[in-house]
């Protein structure tokens, strides 16, 4: 497992370009499993790297905001939105896209309690544990990027290595402080 730092000028586009540069050329699709109002999906679409971005969100009202935001940024034609549970959509609607895809997920962490933990226990992340996320995502592809709390337990992450590729954990820093950790699983290149 390697650990590094990525410094940003306070924008999602540079983060999306960093993630995009790690993917093999054969990976043309990015799936954002917890898209929310589209910040990450829009940044990935704006990066110009992906043939298609699929954004999945449970809340229909939030999807409407995401679609509006995508239109504001001029990438509404590059993003396909799915309303529903990401695990069901991956299994039922996107199951054939695995060889061409990487999954990006910034899952819910379980509320503000993560801030008080010196080391964040990923088995207690709510409503989905690290194991639940990876078990489901790996049914589609091994190439996965998770955005997790900056204090995430590195030992728990290292135990999730099921391939010969290294797991890369990179702190995403803005204005001199870590805002979170991006963890790269599968064959996503040296960062």
Describe the structure.
This protein has 191 residues and is an alpha/beta fold. It has six helices and eight strands. It has an eight-stranded mixed sheet with strand order 1-7-8-6-5-2-3-4, covered by helices on one side. Helix 3 links the parallel strand 3 and strand 4. The longest helix is centred in the middle third of the chain and has 13 residues. It is globular and about 40 Å long. The termini are close together. The N terminus is likely disordered.
Key descriptive features of the protein:
disordered N terminus, 27% helix, 6 helices, 191 residues
Give a brief outline of the structure.
The chain has 191 residues and is of the alpha/beta class. It has helices at 12-22, 39-46, 60-72, 86-92, 130-137, 154-158, and strands at 2-8, 29-32, 52-57, 79-83, 101-105, 144-148, 168-174, 177-185.
Write the layout of secondary structure elements.
Elements: E1 2-8, H1 12-22, E2 29-32, H2 39-46, E3 52-57, H3 60-72, E4 79-83, H4 86-92, E5 101-105, H5 130-137, E6 144-148, H6 154-158, E7 168-174, E8 177-185
Parallel strand pairs: 1-7, 2-3, 2-5, 3-4, 5-6
Antiparallel strand pairs: 6-8, 7-8
Helix pairs in contact: 1-2
